[in-house]
Amino acid sequence: MNTVEYSITRRLPAEPKRVYTAWTTPAGFSRWFGPREFTTPEDRIVMQTRPGGAWQVVMLDDAGNEYPLGGFYRELDAPARLVMTTGDPDNTTGDVASTVSVMFRPTGDGCTEMTMRQQGVNTDTEHAAGAAAGWRHFFDRLAEHLAEH
After folding, report:
1. DSSP characters over 54-116
2. In what order do the strands lie in the sheet with 97-106?
3. How far is CA 85 from CA 40, 81, 90, 102, in A?
4. Digitized pLDDT (tens) for each residue of the chain, 149 residues in all
5. Predicted local confidence at residue 81, as pLDDT
């Protein structure tokens, strides 16, 4: 089993509470999660925001193809930190999975320093590089969403 880990830090134009809410509510998540050319309908998002609770999302491309993703929340400490899985990192079948840890630190000027660390399981460096590039793209959308409001 290969494990690959990386982190991304971004400064976002909102207080930690707003950033945390964008991660933990369907209304917020639907605005930024997924590639720009996809939609992530709010009514296709489930968020049981408690330790052990499931999260599920369905992204749609222009042709209507569905791309489901989900996992479970492991820790929620609003508005400072959350830990969630994608897939099942404890699986033994070789399925790609990961643990995502996100920290939200106030910068003192109304902004947030967000650090996301993803530890991939049953993956390789090429897949992890693609995932990191995807997250950076998603975080561009998150920054735009937060700046709009």
Report:
1. EEEEEEE-TT--EEEEEEEEEEEETTTEEEEEES-TT-SS---EEEEEEEEEE-SSS-EEEEE
2. 3-12, 112-121, 97-106, 81-86, 66-77, 54-60, 45-47
3. 19, 14, 10, 11
4. 578 899 999 999 999 999 999 999 999 999 999 999 999 999 999 999 999 999 999 999 999 999 999 999 999 999 999 999 998 777 778 787 899 999 999 999 999 999 999 998 777 788 888 889 999 999 999 999 999 97
5. 98
Question: Which amino acid belongs to residue 44?
Answer: R
Answer yes or no: are the C-beta atoms of 112 and 11 closer than 8 Å.
Answer: yes
Residue labelled with tokens 């820790």: 75
Asked whether 95 and 87 are in contact (CB, 8 A), the reply is: yes
**Secondary structure letter of residue 36 according to DSSP:** T
Three-class secondary structure of residue 17 per DSSP: helix
Which secondary structure element, helix H or strand E, spans residue 21, and what is its range?
helix 16-24
